[in-house]
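Run log // design_07
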């Protein structure tokens, strides 16, 4: 039964990710709630995913599916500058994101989550 319940959550997080990619690309903004989602907010979800053995899977879905929304949206636009890892993609991007934000936490925590994900992808997964 759980996969049926979680499908709307996965779809919603992917749509938020797509809206954030659109916002960072200069496309007119979507819901205000998606714009207010900060790098710190997403980092919290990513961290809870590792630290909460009972409900961490929900936070992991929020974190990874938000980022995978960007990866899928970039692929759909034909972007050839970002090359995510072919295996364990969501987890690799999640770990890269947590490292990226922590490298300059004071400056990056208040970025929009969309800009932070794009920064992570650009700095860590550029195509060769």
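design_07 sequence
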């Amino acid at each position: 039964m759980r996969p049926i319940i979680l499908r709307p959550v996965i779809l919603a997080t992917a749509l938020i990710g797509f809206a954030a990619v659109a916002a960072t690309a200069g496309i007119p903004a979507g819901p205000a709630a998606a714009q207010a989602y900060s790098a710190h907010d997403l980092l919290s979800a990513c961290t809870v995913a590792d630290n909460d053995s009972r409900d961490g899977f929900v936070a992991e879905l929020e974190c990874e599916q938000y980022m995978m929304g960007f990866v899928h949206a970039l692929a759909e636009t034909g972007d050839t500058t970002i090359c995510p890892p072919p295996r364990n993609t969501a987890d690799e991007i999640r770990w890269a994101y947590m490292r990226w934000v922590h490298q300059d936490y004071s400056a990056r925590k208040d970025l929009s989550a969309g800009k932070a994900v794009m920064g992570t992808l650009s700095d860590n997964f550029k195509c060769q």
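The longest helix spans residues 2-24.
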